[in-house]
Amino acid sequence: MDQPLFEAKNIVKNYGSYRALDDVSIEVKQGTVYGLLGPNGAGKTTLIRIINQITGPDQGSVWFKGVPMKRAHVNQIGYLPEERGLYKKMKVGEQCLYLARLKGLSEQEAKRRLRTWFEKFAIQDWWTKKVEELSKGMAQKVQFIVTVIHEPELLIFDEPFTGFDPVNASLIRDEIIRMKDQGATIIFSTHRMETVEELCDHIALIHKSKKILDGKLNDIRQQHRTHVYELDFRGNMPSFANALWAGAEIIEQKHQDNNHSVKLKLLGNNTANDLFKAILPVCEIVRFNEVIPTMNDIFISTVQTPQ
Amino acid sequence: MGKIGLIITREFLTRVRKKSFIIMTILGPLLMGALMIVPVLLADVGSSTKIILVVDETGILDHGLKNNDDIIFVYEGRDLKKARAIAVSKRYYGVVHVPVFKDNDIRHLQQNIRFYAADQVSLGVKSYVRAQLERQIERLQLQSQNVDQALVESVKLNSNVPLPITPLQPGTSNTDVEINTILGWLSGLLIYLFIFLFGAQAMRGVIEEKTNRIVEVIISSVKPFELMMGKIIGIALVGLTQFLLWIVLTGSIYSVFTGVVIKDKYSAENIQQMMMKSPEGTGPKVDEAAVVNQLLDGIGRINWEVILPFFIFYFIFGYLLYGALFAAIGSAVDSEADTQQFMLPITIPLIFSFVMAQAVVNEPAGALAKWLSIFPFTSPVIMMVRLPFGVPVVELILSALALIAGFVGTTWLAGKIYRTGILMYGKRVSWSELIKWLRY
Fold this sequence. Notes:
By secondary structure, chain A is of the alpha/beta class. Chain A has helices at residues 44-51, 92-102, 107-120, 136-148, 166-181, 193-199, 217-223, 237-243, 272-279, 295-304; strands at 4-15, 18-29, 33-37, 59-64, 67-68, 77-80, 154-158, 185-189, 202-207, 210-216, 228-235, 248-256, 259-266, 283-290. Chain A has a six-stranded mixed beta sheet with strand order 6-7-8-3-9-10, with helices on both faces. A four-stranded antiparallel beta sheet of chain A has the order 2-1-4-5, covered by helices on one side. Chain B has helices at residues 3-16, 19-44, 80-89, 106-112, 123-144, 149-157, 177-212, 215-218, 224-262, 268-277, 284-301, 304-332, 340-362, 367-372, 379-386, 393-421, 431-437; strands spanning 50-56, 71-75, 94-98, 114-117. The two termini of chain B are 31 Å apart. Chains A and B meet through helix 2 and helix 4 of A and helix 1, helix 7 and helix 8 of B.
């Protein structure tokens, strides 16, 4: 599990005088879901294209399973680009077969696997339809199938859920989780932070062509703790306020008879235990929890911080 | 099958299965066949008998105007007014008026003969009537000089020089200028059309992939260059297939046509017979039959086994040379409407070569023809125009090598533009931008 499936080392990519990637390194461990985040135009797509061998880096190197990446490795990658589409005039089955064979599958094998997938998604009767007859969501399903049909070791999804209704989105999400459980490694690029929190093990944030954040999702959230806690208690508010010492300050408060909700920020090195010691004599604690920043908060605060 | 093979197959099959391809394949030879057959048939049909009244005020013509199958001269007294009234009421074709002429002045007479026509006079009728009148004038002039007309006729008849053309150096083939001109024109035109037609198809294919957004999916499986070449080659095979089907179909139409419709009528024997029947040994019918006979004879003598392979070579490589450039244009734009600014520099040499074909036909071995048939951007059209007239082997080899080198060069250039262009959306690209891409 510790062996990185994919590594990019010190990648620099220029388009003319514009530097799209500036000394970016990432390491994607086998069997993990890696979130590649960043505002629009940060350089995510360029990095993904380098991973896919669509374009090459000007400096730096890319490694797949410990060896320098070669052209042949693209057969072990499945890529669902953000800008995606199908031949409109071509029939669905024929098109799937073509794209599967371009990924190196034999005709029989491609047919066999496609049949399984079409059954799984209950879309067998689409086989002879033209793509232009499908709705956007239907076409996205077909697109998803051709991305994973060759059972690649590395899957790259760029905004995979756009165009899906909630039912189909969860269908796709389940498939992604299933593939992860079967050992596939997944690189995820999305702007939907709740998806990141739900699915990703590890994230990297790219901003203005540089990587500015990298680490396990949980570690990053811990690092971005703001020491804010939510506390519900029963008791007398003035005596609670008197019990607090200089180590804590109230940010928000709500009251209803004897029931009080407050949001507290602990200052200095004070811990929750220090807080408890101070307030236990004066109130009855109903609920207490730490407010851990969401990925959304982290994203916004990191991107808005001047570098 | 390699990945590029898969791409070629897809590009080929999706196009060949289209209705438009099947229609074009059938329509092409029919149109070409019609082009050959209709003029011949038209000459046969459609000409009704035309009656022309002749008012010969002095009787000088001595009823000497000869009728032919279409035109009948009727002598109608000496009163022009009356003749014109008759012609109008009976809907005759017209009236020829030969006035009284002063002092036996034939020049005066020549200037004053008039043809009053009911309708537009066709060129054929006018020239026939004129020829008949000129014969009479000639006769009068000979008479006034006391020359025996029969003698002149027989001298004329025996002064015919057929002038067959023989090559200056032995070993080269001798050529029928007319047939070669037509053949050169036609094959040059075909190459020109094919390059435009299939080059535009390559361009449209690239734009389609780009606007469909499927291109990024595909180039995560194959190299952009492979995708581009696969498409260009696939379309080349479509063109080749279409052309070969045309040859086969046209060939069969032609052989049926020559075998059934015109073999007898325009055979040498039949022309001989017609000549015997016709008092002067000529006349439009006989001339026409002789021309058709010559034409058929000439077509039979064309060196198809030389022309065809070269045609295919220049078609394939000419298309490949331009096709790569067309594909590069397609990659640089978002829609067909944006292609204009880039199309012009590419179409100019193609159109130029087609325009220059006229000059080349007139002087197929001149310096202009030589250089244009070696320069790879003009050689596909120009060499096809020259080829029927015979081209030295050295020039052929030079031209072929230059074309292949040109194709390698444009493909390399196009590949560089293509791989950047296909991933560039929503940006109006300028020429300087394109040149920048070459360095990416």
